[in-house]
Amino acid sequence: MRIQLAQRDEADELLGRSPLALLVGMLLDQQIPMEWAFTGPYTISQRLGHDLTAAEIASFEPEAFAALLAEKPAVHRYPKSMAARIQQLAAYLVEHYDGRPEKIWADAGDGKALLKRLMALPGYGKQKAQIFLALLGKQLGVQPSGWREAAGLYGEEGSHRSVADVVDAESLVRVRAAKQEAKRAPEAQ
User: Fold this and answer.
1) What is the mean pLDDT of the chain?
2) CA separation, residue 167 to residues 136, 140, 162, 164 (Å)
3) Are 144 and 126 in contact (CB under 8 A)?
4) If pLDDT is split at 50, 70 and 90, which confidence band does 179 have?
């Protein structure tokens, strides 16, 4: 299956071939539209002139990396704080996984173990980790035993709750509608 989270061919192609780009896109996916967040890794790689590597990002001078993200158009509405988070994520990947994010899920024994590894990533709380786990399972075929249960509601087959369920423009509309409905639900009570 082809990743279509950025809804831009070149950005989605990068997400599909680079586990680091996918992790960074997920990290950026807060307080901005999903497409903007998942285009972020492509924008960064274009500004660097090559694909992202955890080692390069981790060793980048922090102010220079923040400036790179702040160039117009900015990678995120909060480029300085997100640059720091991306660098923290990259440093963690270098320290714990030799800079190779696919090692996070390559040998995870089961869904619970994978969720625990994802939750240990800087910038990944439980919800973000569960959504990413669901994305891995639903779109990349990373399906250790118990992955759906570990992903919680985001792992449900046929759901339209998160980026894990976005496979084209139509599913993006359905996910947005479900999110709007979820926001309205508490008001009705």
Assistant:
1) 94
2) 13, 11, 11, 8
3) no
4) confident
Nearest to 57 by CA among 89, 23, 101: 89
- Rounded Cα–Cα distance for residues 35 and 74 (Å): 13
Look-up: residue for tokens 């118990």? 146
Helix, coil or strand: residue 72: coil
CA–chain centroid gap for 174, Å, is 19
Q: At what angle do helices 126-139 and 19-28 cross, to 10 degrees?
A: 140
pLDDT in tens, 77-115: 999 999 999 999 999 999 999 999 999 999 999 999 999
- My answer on whether omega of the bond before 33 falls inside 30° of 0, hence cis, is no
Question: How distant, in Å, are the alpha carbons of 18, 26, 51, 94, 117 from that of 101?
Answer: 9, 13, 14, 9, 11
Summarize pLDDT for 65-79 with one digit per residue, the tens. 999 999 999 999 999
CA angle centred on 21, ends 17 and 24, rounded to 5°: 155
Q: What pLDDT does 189 receive?
A: 47
